[in-house]
Amino acid sequence: MAAARELLDAEGPDALSMRRIAERVGIRAPSLYKHFPDKAAVEAGLQAQGMTRLAEDLEAAEAGIGAEPPLLVLARAYRRHALAGPHLYRITHTRPLARAALPAGLEDRAAMPLARAVHGDIDIARSFWAFAHGMVVLELDGRFPTDADVDAAWRTGCEAFAQAIRSEPGGATA
């Protein structure tokens, strides 16, 4: 898995092949099949790494929430997470998720900081994740105009979601 991750980080997802991974660890490709049944298993392992890293990054951000709005803190951590490892981010978040291959509870663990920030409202949590994911993909793809204030767009989105939480019945504050 370490060799696959190195290859992914250095050259992107198109570089991932059983032959290239085997070369990187100094074995022949057929020998690699003793460890992984196919390339999909390697990608599933990388998704588990990406999801674990996301959980750790969001948990660390959540632990540091002070006076700033929680959604802004988590959005900043999500963005840093994606920009720090764009190829791992894409493998983990833009392809079908190999849920059956993930360690039990990992997907929920990664979602919990956001769920707590929106007081358990799963619809707002999913909508916010879609906003954050879309913003990150647009940034990774260079789709914002060069003069765009991407930080301001993130803040505006976070403020809109915080307002949605405040206007819920019961008036919880974000």
How would you describe what is shown here?
This protein has helices spanning 2-11, 18-25, 29-32, 39-63, 70-84, 86-93, 106-117, 122-140, 150-166. The protein is mainly α and 174 residues long. It folds into two domains: 1-36, Arc Repressor Mutant, subunit A, CATH 1.10.10; 49-166, Tetracycline Repressor, domain 2 (Orthogonal Bundle), CATH 1.10.357. Helix 4 runs antiparallel to helix 5 (70-84), helix 4 packs across helix 6 (86-93) and helix 4 (39-63) runs parallel beside helix 7 (106-117). The longest helix has 25 residues, at 39-63. It is elongated. The mean pLDDT is 94.
Keyword list:
174 residues; mainly alpha; Arc Repressor Mutant, subunit A; 9 helices
In a nutshell, what does this entry contain?
With 174 residues, the chain is mainly alpha-helical.
How far apart are the first and last residues' alpha carbons, in Å? 39 Å
Q: Look at the structure and name the CATH superfamily of the largest domain.
A: Tetracycline Repressor, domain 2
* CATH architecture name of the largest domain: Orthogonal Bundle
**Overall spatial form:** elongated
Structural class: mainly alpha
Work out the radius of gyration.
18 Å
Reported for the largest beta sheet, the result is: none
- Unreliable stretches: none
Q: How many DSSP helices? A: 9
- Examine the coordinates and then state which fold CATH places here, giving the name of the CATH topology of the largest domain: Tetracycline Repressor, domain 2
Task: Tell me roughly what share of residues is in helical segments.
Answer: 55-70%
Mean pLDDT: 94
H/E series: HHHHHHHHH
How many domain units?
2
Strand content: under 5%
* CATH class bucket of the largest domain: Mainly Alpha
